[in-house]
Hints:
Elements lengths: L6 E7 L3 E8 L5 E8 L1 H4 L12 E2 L1 H16 L4 H5 L1 E8 L4 E4 L20 E2 L7 H13 L17 H11 L1 H6 L2 E4 H10 L11 H7 L11 H7 L8 H4 L20 H7 L6 E2 L3 E2 L32 H14 L5
Parallel strand pairs: 1-5, 5-9, 5-10
Antiparallel strand pairs: 1-2, 2-3, 4-7, 6-8
Helix pairs in contact: 4-5
Amino acid sequence: MESNKKYVIGLDFGTDSCRALVVDTYTGREMATGVSFYPRWKAGLYCDAHNNRYRQHPLDYIESMIEAVHIALSDLKEEEIASICGLCFDTTGSTPALTDKAGMPLALCPEFAEEPDAMFILWKDHTAVREAEQINALINKRNLDYLLYEGGTYSSEWVWSKVLHIINTNVAIKDAAYAWVEHCDWMTGLVTGNTIPEQIFRSRCAAGHKAMWHASWCLPSGEVLEKLNPALKPMNPGSTEPSTWPQIPLIQRPPTSSLPATMMSQVDVPMIRVSIPGATDAPTAPIWASSAPTATAIPWGSPSLSAHSCVSSPALVSLVWVSVNRWGSIS
Length: 331
């Protein structure tokens, strides 16, 4: 085996399952795959189809990720496993959850372990139709630019509608919540030990399309959020402090560091050097801004498509392959 071989793991969180894909960064060859279905979701827990409520427990994501990676690694040799140097995440969206000050979804707190409103609100959850109407009415009344890159209408499937619905209807969750996080950002933060709301790396793919983020104004102003619901303004520290939302391309290379031993000990990967912020929606692809060794990969999600199934392997292969291959100095 060549000494400079490097592999990466692409983790694709679909509606029903997590898929782990191991790719050779130099050839793009698929080395191994593993799929794990979310156990609680498969059992039909926490959902109410009649009322368009679809929630997923964060433990489903954690447990399925570990199992999927174990399955994939079982097909690799020890030296191949030792050559894995990076992770990439792709999730559905908008799939947010309300969190505590540590950035942990409230469903991981014992008192909210069985509370659907404390879990991730799946992309196809349509409980926030009224809140979407409220948001659109306010933005149109004030003639704001927030919908300029959102297709002109804010959806009940997107983060502000969903968070607003929860705090409008569940006092206990509203009082306990400190911030919110998208699924794609939380997974990256979880494995790198960086989930603090003010510090976590956020994906422009998710923020730009789902949260009305733009470099010109960052997120919606605190005044607008307060008008929607006074509890909404302080719930996301980054919304009123633009500096906490870095003005960076969609994907930024974080400082080189190994992942937390507690997480990696469960997936049996000895050392991961790079984990790049996640992206949402299945149609994801890389663009390179320059030929510099630290060039940045920019994925985008198609506004017209929802990532409702675990089918994005070609895009995921392309993203993780090109990303790590261009970062050839990783060791």
